[in-house]
Write a structure and sequence with these properties.
3-stranded antiparallel sheet; Rossmann fold; alpha/beta; binds 2'-O-acetyl adenosine-5-diphosphoribose; 6-stranded parallel sheet; about 35% helix; 10 helices; single chain
Amino acid sequence: MASIFNAMNKQLIPMERFNRDSQVVFFTGAGISAESGISTFRDPDGHWSKHDPMKLASQTGFQENPVMVLNWYADRREAIQKAKPNAAHRTISNFQKLFSNSVVITQNVDGLHERAGNRSIYELHGNIHRHKCNSCGTMIELAKRKMRIINRCACGGGVRPDVVWFGESLPLGTINAAFEAVQRCDLMFSIGTSAQVYPAAQLPVEAQSQGAFVIEINPEPTPFSHLADISVRQEAGLIMPQLYEEFHAQLK
Ligand code: OAD
């Protein structure tokens, strides 16, 4: 197995800057769930390589063909339900025992952080397991058998997955809380995100510019890589346990 010491120079992690009271942010994207078998968006076999995002993840797409949109989300939801959190999700739980002041800020809608036992999770783009009214925003419980058909809220609005679509705002309380956590953090792990979708992609930039140490984990370079203090070009499930061992052994 490749060791972390082959992937990066461990001297570059300034361990003396951190202790168990350090504020730590785990910022994640679709890549952290890739090793659970869940498709990413912008990789060569990702969703947006096969489908037009405006047809499946926009208000216009939903108005034009709601059943197609509902079916696509139902297929994804079912795949996610069969998947399990992987070593990277589980390692965040270990890290959170080491760093009690830590939060998870995720762009993922799959709920795998929660299933792995992570805590203080901010879901910037919603959660695919929830539904809401497209008009009044009321949260709506749907039986599985109803998830592929058009359902109406009491107000008459269509029922949709509680995920953020292109052109929509992120939940205000969540994005504000995320930026506050980032503004006070000492250390950020930016894991498995292409760092292309804003405002989420601003978070590692913000962390870096306010003086936090930022470790990016991604097998591919991203627009953020040149700003990161360390960019580890490895799969998250491989490198996160090794990083944890390093911090566990060296942290005061
Ligand atoms: P992307 O699909 O844009 O990027 C996934 C990233 O994960 C890529 O940079 C891959 O190189 C990397 N990756 C793949 N396998 C990995 C692994 N095993 N370990 C670590 N990294 C790996 O996904 P996001 O950045 O999350 O929006 O995309 C942001 C948003 O765009 C998503 O939340 C989604 C999408 O449209 C909504 O659903 C609202």
